[in-house]
Amino acid sequence: MTVGMKYAVTIALSDPHRSADPPPTAERRQIAAHGASRGSVPGTAQAPEGRKKTPHVHILPIRCGARTLATCLILSSTLIACARQKSPDTPQTVSSTLLPTAMNSDDPAPKPSINSARAMQYVRDVVAFGPRPIGSPNHKKLETYIVSHLKGVTVEDDAFTADTPEGKFPVRNIIAKFPGTRDGIIVIAGHYDTNYPLRNTGYVGANDGGSSTAILLELANHLRDKKRDGYSVWLLWTDGEEAVKQWSATDSLYGTRHLAEKWEKDGTLKKIKAFLLTDMIADADLNIDQDMNSTPWLESVVLQAATRLGYQSHFFGRSLPIEDDHLPFVHMGVPSADLIDMDYGYNDVFHHTPQDTLDKLSPKSLEIVGSVLLETVRLLDKM
Ligand SMILES: [Zn+2]
Prior knowledge:
It is a single chain. The chain is an alpha/beta fold and 383 residues long. Helices cover 25% and strands 21% of the residues. The chain has a domain at 116-382: 3-Layer(aba) Sandwich (Aminopeptidase). It has helices spanning 69-72, 116-128, 137-148, 206-223, 254-265, 296-308, 327-331, 363-382, and strands at 2-3, 51-52, 56-59, 75-78, 154-164, 167-178, 180-191, 228-238, 272-279, 288-291, 315-320, 336-340. The chain has a 6-stranded mixed sheet, sandwiched between helices. Strands 1-2 form a two-stranded antiparallel ribbon. It has a two-stranded antiparallel ribbon with strand order 3-4. The longest helix has 20 residues, at 363-382. It is globular, with a radius of gyration of 19 Å. Bound molecules: zinc ion.
Protein backbone atom coordinates (compact mmCIF):
# COMPACT_ATOMS: atom_id res chain seq x y z
CA MET A 1 0.00 0.00 0.00
CA THR A 2 2.51 2.57 0.97
CA VAL A 3 6.09 2.88 1.88
CA GLY A 4 6.68 3.11 5.57
CA MET A 5 9.18 5.78 6.19
CA LYS A 6 10.07 8.83 8.05
CA TYR A 7 11.00 12.09 6.55
CA ALA A 8 11.19 15.66 7.42
CA VAL A 9 10.01 18.67 5.58
CA THR A 10 11.43 22.00 6.38
CA ILE A 11 10.42 24.20 3.55
CA ALA A 12 9.06 27.53 4.50
CA LEU A 13 7.11 29.57 2.06
CA SER A 14 8.52 32.68 3.59
CA ASP A 15 12.12 31.62 3.16
CA PRO A 16 13.64 34.65 1.49
CA HIS A 17 16.54 32.63 0.18
CA ARG A 18 14.41 30.66 -2.14
CA SER A 19 14.13 31.91 -5.63
CA ALA A 20 11.28 31.65 -8.05
CA ASP A 21 10.98 28.48 -9.99
CA PRO A 22 11.87 28.17 -13.63
CA PRO A 23 9.19 28.57 -16.25
CA PRO A 24 7.64 25.57 -17.93
CA THR A 25 10.16 25.78 -20.69
CA ALA A 26 12.86 24.76 -18.25
CA GLU A 27 14.12 21.27 -18.32
CA ARG A 28 11.62 18.86 -16.89
CA ARG A 29 12.61 17.45 -13.60
CA GLN A 30 12.13 13.96 -12.38
CA ILE A 31 11.28 12.95 -8.86
CA ALA A 32 14.85 11.98 -8.20
CA ALA A 33 15.90 15.53 -8.80
CA HIS A 34 13.77 16.79 -5.97
CA GLY A 35 15.86 15.28 -3.23
CA ALA A 36 17.84 17.79 -1.29
CA SER A 37 19.56 17.87 2.00
CA ARG A 38 18.95 21.48 2.69
CA GLY A 39 17.16 22.15 5.87
CA SER A 40 16.75 18.59 6.99
CA VAL A 41 16.05 17.84 10.59
CA PRO A 42 18.81 15.65 11.94
CA GLY A 43 17.68 12.19 12.72
CA THR A 44 14.33 12.39 11.06
CA ALA A 45 15.16 11.53 7.51
CA GLN A 46 15.94 7.99 6.67
CA ALA A 47 15.87 5.67 3.76
CA PRO A 48 12.72 3.77 2.97
CA GLU A 49 12.43 0.47 4.71
CA GLY A 50 10.26 -1.16 2.13
CA ARG A 51 6.57 -1.36 1.85
CA LYS A 52 4.52 -1.40 4.97
CA LYS A 53 0.85 -1.34 5.42
CA THR A 54 0.64 1.71 7.59
CA PRO A 55 3.36 4.20 6.93
CA HIS A 56 4.22 6.66 9.60
CA VAL A 57 5.00 9.98 8.16
CA HIS A 58 6.72 12.58 10.20
CA ILE A 59 5.86 15.97 9.01
CA LEU A 60 7.20 19.30 9.99
CA PRO A 61 4.54 21.60 8.73
CA ILE A 62 5.65 24.53 6.72
CA ARG A 63 4.64 28.07 7.60
CA CYS A 64 5.45 27.61 11.23
CA GLY A 65 6.62 31.13 11.73
CA ALA A 66 3.63 32.57 13.48
CA ARG A 67 2.53 29.46 15.20
CA THR A 68 3.30 28.06 18.58
CA LEU A 69 6.20 25.75 19.03
CA ALA A 70 3.81 22.90 19.70
CA THR A 71 2.24 23.14 16.29
CA CYS A 72 5.65 23.25 14.74
CA LEU A 73 6.82 20.07 16.33
CA ILE A 74 7.17 17.16 14.07
CA LEU A 75 3.79 15.57 13.67
CA SER A 76 3.15 11.96 13.14
CA SER A 77 0.35 10.81 10.97
CA THR A 78 -0.71 7.54 9.53
CA LEU A 79 -1.61 7.48 5.91
CA ILE A 80 -4.30 5.08 5.00
CA ALA A 81 -5.97 4.83 1.71
CA CYS A 82 -5.02 5.19 -1.85
CA ALA A 83 -1.46 4.42 -1.18
CA ARG A 84 0.12 7.73 -1.37
CA GLN A 85 3.73 7.55 -0.64
CA LYS A 86 7.04 8.85 -1.57
CA SER A 87 9.08 7.49 -4.36
CA PRO A 88 10.61 4.23 -3.16
CA ASP A 89 14.22 5.17 -3.60
CA THR A 90 14.32 8.84 -2.95
CA PRO A 91 14.58 9.58 0.74
CA GLN A 92 14.08 13.24 0.55
CA THR A 93 14.06 16.25 2.64
CA VAL A 94 12.67 18.37 -0.07
CA SER A 95 13.68 21.89 -0.45
CA SER A 96 10.99 23.05 -2.72
CA THR A 97 10.63 26.53 -4.03
CA LEU A 98 7.04 27.45 -3.87
CA LEU A 99 7.22 31.15 -3.45
CA PRO A 100 4.68 32.63 -5.77
CA THR A 101 6.50 34.23 -8.61
CA ALA A 102 6.23 37.95 -8.90
CA MET A 103 2.57 38.67 -9.20
CA ASN A 104 1.20 41.47 -11.21
CA SER A 105 -1.27 43.03 -8.85
CA ASP A 106 -2.55 45.15 -11.70
CA ASP A 107 -3.61 42.11 -13.67
CA PRO A 108 -7.03 43.18 -14.91
CA ALA A 109 -8.15 39.67 -15.81
CA PRO A 110 -11.41 38.70 -14.16
CA LYS A 111 -11.06 36.19 -11.37
CA PRO A 112 -12.52 32.89 -12.45
CA SER A 113 -15.14 31.12 -10.44
CA ILE A 114 -17.23 28.03 -10.87
CA ASN A 115 -20.81 27.18 -10.08
CA SER A 116 -20.15 25.42 -6.81
CA ALA A 117 -23.81 24.53 -6.21
CA ARG A 118 -23.90 22.73 -9.54
CA ALA A 119 -20.58 21.03 -8.81
CA MET A 120 -21.95 19.86 -5.46
CA GLN A 121 -25.02 18.51 -7.20
CA TYR A 122 -22.74 16.47 -9.44
CA VAL A 123 -21.15 14.98 -6.32
CA ARG A 124 -24.62 14.07 -5.02
CA ASP A 125 -25.56 12.49 -8.34
CA VAL A 126 -22.35 10.49 -8.44
CA VAL A 127 -22.69 9.30 -4.85
CA ALA A 128 -26.30 8.28 -5.54
CA PHE A 129 -24.99 5.54 -7.82
CA GLY A 130 -23.54 3.85 -4.74
CA PRO A 131 -20.15 2.11 -4.61
CA ARG A 132 -18.43 2.42 -7.99
CA PRO A 133 -15.46 0.07 -8.04
CA ILE A 134 -14.05 -1.10 -11.35
CA GLY A 135 -16.06 -3.83 -12.98
CA SER A 136 -19.30 -2.96 -11.15
CA PRO A 137 -22.67 -2.06 -12.71
CA ASN A 138 -22.59 1.25 -10.80
CA HIS A 139 -19.25 2.05 -12.39
CA LYS A 140 -20.82 1.46 -15.78
CA LYS A 141 -23.71 3.77 -14.91
CA LEU A 142 -21.27 6.48 -13.91
CA GLU A 143 -19.39 6.14 -17.19
CA THR A 144 -22.66 6.79 -19.01
CA TYR A 145 -23.44 9.69 -16.68
CA ILE A 146 -20.07 11.36 -17.32
CA VAL A 147 -20.29 11.01 -21.09
CA SER A 148 -23.90 12.26 -21.08
CA HIS A 149 -22.62 15.55 -19.65
CA LEU A 150 -20.15 16.00 -22.48
CA LYS A 151 -22.50 16.44 -25.40
CA GLY A 152 -20.95 18.52 -28.13
CA VAL A 153 -17.46 17.88 -26.80
CA THR A 154 -14.85 15.69 -28.45
CA VAL A 155 -14.61 12.68 -26.16
CA GLU A 156 -12.13 9.84 -26.46
CA ASP A 157 -11.74 6.67 -24.48
CA ASP A 158 -8.70 4.78 -23.44
CA ALA A 159 -10.37 1.47 -22.70
CA PHE A 160 -8.55 -1.76 -21.97
CA THR A 161 -8.58 -4.81 -19.74
CA ALA A 162 -6.49 -4.63 -16.60
CA ASP A 163 -4.95 -7.72 -15.11
CA THR A 164 -5.24 -7.36 -11.35
CA PRO A 165 -4.73 -9.55 -8.28
CA GLU A 166 -8.53 -9.95 -8.25
CA GLY A 167 -8.77 -10.91 -11.91
CA LYS A 168 -9.37 -9.05 -15.13
CA PHE A 169 -11.38 -5.85 -15.16
CA PRO A 170 -12.44 -3.41 -17.84
CA VAL A 171 -10.82 -0.01 -17.30
CA ARG A 172 -11.85 3.11 -19.16
CA ASN A 173 -10.18 6.49 -19.03
CA ILE A 174 -12.46 9.18 -20.44
CA ILE A 175 -10.90 12.20 -22.13
CA ALA A 176 -12.77 15.37 -23.11
CA LYS A 177 -10.83 17.67 -25.41
CA PHE A 178 -11.16 21.44 -25.60
CA PRO A 179 -8.89 22.75 -28.35
CA GLY A 180 -6.85 25.91 -27.94
CA THR A 181 -4.85 28.18 -30.18
CA ARG A 182 -1.45 27.36 -28.68
CA ASP A 183 0.51 24.26 -29.43
CA GLY A 184 0.44 22.17 -26.28
CA ILE A 185 -1.94 20.53 -23.86
CA ILE A 186 -2.89 21.08 -20.24
CA VAL A 187 -4.42 17.97 -18.73
CA ILE A 188 -6.73 18.23 -15.71
CA ALA A 189 -7.43 14.83 -14.26
CA GLY A 190 -9.21 13.04 -11.46
CA HIS A 191 -10.33 9.48 -10.82
CA TYR A 192 -13.93 8.29 -10.88
CA ASP A 193 -13.60 4.74 -9.61
CA THR A 194 -14.09 4.03 -5.93
CA ASN A 195 -12.17 1.82 -3.56
CA TYR A 196 -12.51 -1.85 -4.51
CA PRO A 197 -11.82 -3.63 -1.19
CA LEU A 198 -14.56 -1.56 0.50
CA ARG A 199 -17.10 -2.32 -2.21
CA ASN A 200 -19.42 -4.28 0.08
CA THR A 201 -19.28 -1.94 3.06
CA GLY A 202 -21.59 0.76 1.77
CA TYR A 203 -18.57 2.89 0.95
CA VAL A 204 -19.59 5.57 -1.56
CA GLY A 205 -16.42 7.65 -1.85
CA ALA A 206 -18.09 11.06 -1.77
CA ASN A 207 -14.75 12.79 -1.49
CA ASP A 208 -12.48 10.04 -2.82
CA GLY A 209 -13.77 9.54 -6.33
CA GLY A 210 -16.90 11.67 -6.11
CA SER A 211 -15.33 15.10 -5.75
CA SER A 212 -12.80 14.61 -8.54
CA THR A 213 -15.48 13.31 -10.90
CA ALA A 214 -17.68 16.30 -10.14
CA ILE A 215 -15.09 19.05 -10.40
CA LEU A 216 -14.14 17.88 -13.89
CA LEU A 217 -17.79 17.88 -14.95
CA GLU A 218 -18.12 21.44 -13.71
CA LEU A 219 -14.91 22.51 -15.45
CA ALA A 220 -16.33 21.09 -18.67
CA ASN A 221 -19.18 23.59 -18.36
CA HIS A 222 -16.63 26.40 -18.29
CA LEU A 223 -14.64 25.13 -21.23
CA ARG A 224 -17.35 24.08 -23.64
CA ASP A 225 -18.40 26.29 -26.50
CA LYS A 226 -15.61 28.77 -25.81
CA LYS A 227 -12.70 29.59 -28.01
CA ARG A 228 -9.59 28.94 -25.97
CA ASP A 229 -6.86 31.49 -26.53
CA GLY A 230 -4.18 29.31 -25.04
CA TYR A 231 -3.22 25.67 -24.73
CA SER A 232 -5.69 22.92 -25.41
CA VAL A 233 -7.26 21.64 -22.22
CA TRP A 234 -8.05 17.97 -21.86
CA LEU A 235 -10.21 16.82 -18.99
CA LEU A 236 -9.34 13.30 -17.98
CA TRP A 237 -11.54 11.08 -15.83
CA THR A 238 -9.10 8.38 -14.83
CA ASP A 239 -10.17 4.87 -13.96
CA GLY A 240 -8.63 2.11 -11.87
CA GLU A 241 -6.77 4.51 -9.63
CA GLU A 242 -7.56 2.44 -6.58
CA ALA A 243 -5.78 -0.76 -5.64
CA VAL A 244 -7.94 -3.87 -5.76
CA LYS A 245 -6.06 -5.65 -3.01
CA GLN A 246 -3.14 -3.77 -1.55
CA TRP A 247 -1.49 -0.72 -2.96
CA SER A 248 1.71 -1.42 -4.81
CA ALA A 249 3.42 -0.33 -7.99
CA THR A 250 1.49 -3.00 -9.89
CA ASP A 251 -1.78 -2.88 -7.92
CA SER A 252 -2.78 0.78 -8.36
CA LEU A 253 -3.04 3.48 -10.99
CA TYR A 254 -4.20 1.02 -13.65
CA GLY A 255 -5.69 3.66 -15.88
CA THR A 256 -2.95 6.25 -15.79
CA ARG A 257 -0.14 3.74 -16.11
CA HIS A 258 -1.79 2.52 -19.31
CA LEU A 259 -2.55 5.99 -20.61
CA ALA A 260 0.90 7.43 -19.94
CA GLU A 261 2.44 4.58 -21.89
CA LYS A 262 -0.03 5.02 -24.72
CA TRP A 263 0.58 8.75 -24.89
CA GLU A 264 4.30 8.22 -24.86
CA LYS A 265 4.05 5.90 -27.83
CA ASP A 266 1.76 8.10 -29.91
CA GLY A 267 3.70 11.31 -29.21
CA THR A 268 1.01 12.98 -27.09
CA LEU A 269 3.12 13.01 -23.98
CA LYS A 270 5.66 15.53 -25.21
CA LYS A 271 2.87 17.99 -25.98
CA ILE A 272 1.63 18.03 -22.39
CA LYS A 273 2.74 21.23 -20.73
CA ALA A 274 1.15 20.47 -17.39
CA PHE A 275 -0.70 17.61 -15.74
CA LEU A 276 -2.97 18.88 -12.96
CA LEU A 277 -4.50 16.20 -10.79
CA THR A 278 -7.38 16.55 -8.36
CA ASP A 279 -8.23 14.03 -5.70
CA MET A 280 -10.25 14.37 -2.49
CA ILE A 281 -10.81 18.08 -2.93
CA ALA A 282 -14.21 18.66 -1.34
CA ASP A 283 -13.46 18.21 2.36
CA ALA A 284 -15.21 21.05 4.18
CA ASP A 285 -11.95 21.61 6.05
CA LEU A 286 -9.88 22.05 2.93
CA ASN A 287 -6.11 21.74 3.21
CA ILE A 288 -4.48 20.95 -0.09
CA ASP A 289 -1.16 19.31 0.66
CA GLN A 290 2.08 20.14 -1.03
CA ASP A 291 3.06 16.91 -2.71
CA MET A 292 6.76 16.26 -2.70
CA ASN A 293 6.43 14.06 -5.79
CA SER A 294 4.94 16.88 -7.83
CA THR A 295 6.84 19.37 -9.95
CA PRO A 296 7.86 22.40 -7.86
CA TRP A 297 7.51 25.07 -10.53
CA LEU A 298 4.00 23.88 -11.38
CA GLU A 299 2.99 23.85 -7.71
CA SER A 300 4.35 27.36 -7.58
CA VAL A 301 1.99 28.39 -10.36
CA VAL A 302 -0.90 26.76 -8.50
CA LEU A 303 0.03 28.68 -5.38
CA GLN A 304 0.25 31.87 -7.38
CA ALA A 305 -3.24 31.23 -8.71
CA ALA A 306 -4.55 30.49 -5.23
CA THR A 307 -2.94 33.63 -3.87
CA ARG A 308 -4.47 35.84 -6.54
CA LEU A 309 -7.89 34.49 -5.63
CA GLY A 310 -7.28 34.86 -1.90
CA TYR A 311 -7.35 31.13 -1.27
CA GLN A 312 -3.70 30.60 -0.39
CA SER A 313 -4.45 29.60 3.19
CA HIS A 314 -5.99 26.38 1.86
CA PHE A 315 -2.83 25.39 0.02
CA PHE A 316 0.38 23.68 0.96
CA GLY A 317 0.20 24.00 4.73
CA ARG A 318 2.16 20.79 5.01
CA SER A 319 4.29 18.72 2.69
CA LEU A 320 4.35 15.01 2.11
CA PRO A 321 5.11 12.67 -0.75
CA ILE A 322 1.99 11.34 -2.37
CA GLU A 323 1.40 8.52 -4.79
CA ASP A 324 -1.47 9.21 -7.08
CA ASP A 325 -2.48 9.25 -10.72
CA HIS A 326 0.15 11.82 -11.61
CA LEU A 327 3.04 9.47 -10.89
CA PRO A 328 3.13 7.63 -14.24
CA PHE A 329 3.38 11.05 -15.88
CA VAL A 330 5.93 12.37 -13.41
CA HIS A 331 8.08 9.36 -14.14
CA MET A 332 7.95 10.22 -17.83
CA GLY A 333 9.02 13.80 -17.26
CA VAL A 334 5.65 15.54 -17.53
CA PRO A 335 5.34 18.55 -15.21
CA SER A 336 2.66 17.48 -12.76
CA ALA A 337 0.90 18.75 -9.66
CA ASP A 338 -1.38 16.71 -7.43
CA LEU A 339 -3.99 18.76 -5.63
CA ILE A 340 -5.10 16.52 -2.81
CA ASP A 341 -6.22 16.96 0.78
CA MET A 342 -4.87 14.00 2.66
CA ASP A 343 -6.20 15.20 5.99
CA TYR A 344 -9.80 14.16 5.57
CA GLY A 345 -11.20 14.45 9.05
CA TYR A 346 -8.94 14.56 12.06
CA ASN A 347 -5.89 12.47 11.27
CA ASP A 348 -7.49 11.49 7.96
CA VAL A 349 -10.02 9.25 9.70
CA PHE A 350 -12.69 9.39 6.99
CA HIS A 351 -10.36 8.40 4.18
CA HIS A 352 -11.18 4.95 2.79
CA THR A 353 -13.91 4.33 5.30
CA PRO A 354 -17.68 4.17 4.90
CA GLN A 355 -17.65 7.59 6.59
CA ASP A 356 -16.53 9.20 3.33
CA THR A 357 -19.98 10.68 2.83
CA LEU A 358 -21.59 13.85 1.52
CA ASP A 359 -22.03 15.48 4.92
CA LYS A 360 -18.24 15.93 5.23
CA LEU A 361 -18.06 18.00 2.05
CA SER A 362 -18.55 21.64 1.20
CA PRO A 363 -19.37 23.33 -2.11
CA LYS A 364 -16.98 26.08 -1.02
CA SER A 365 -14.09 23.63 -1.25
CA LEU A 366 -15.14 22.71 -4.77
CA GLU A 367 -15.30 26.42 -5.57
CA ILE A 368 -11.80 26.97 -4.22
CA VAL A 369 -10.19 24.14 -6.15
CA GLY A 370 -12.20 24.68 -9.31
CA SER A 371 -11.45 28.37 -9.55
CA VAL A 372 -7.78 27.85 -8.69
CA LEU A 373 -7.56 25.30 -11.49
CA LEU A 374 -9.08 27.73 -13.97
CA GLU A 375 -6.73 30.48 -12.80
CA THR A 376 -3.77 28.10 -13.03
CA VAL A 377 -4.69 27.35 -16.63
CA ARG A 378 -4.91 31.07 -17.33
CA LEU A 379 -1.45 31.64 -15.87
CA LEU A 380 0.00 28.73 -17.80
CA ASP A 381 -1.50 30.07 -21.00
CA LYS A 382 0.49 33.25 -20.48
CA MET A 383 3.81 31.55 -19.76
ZN1 LIG B 1 -8.88 6.25 -2.61
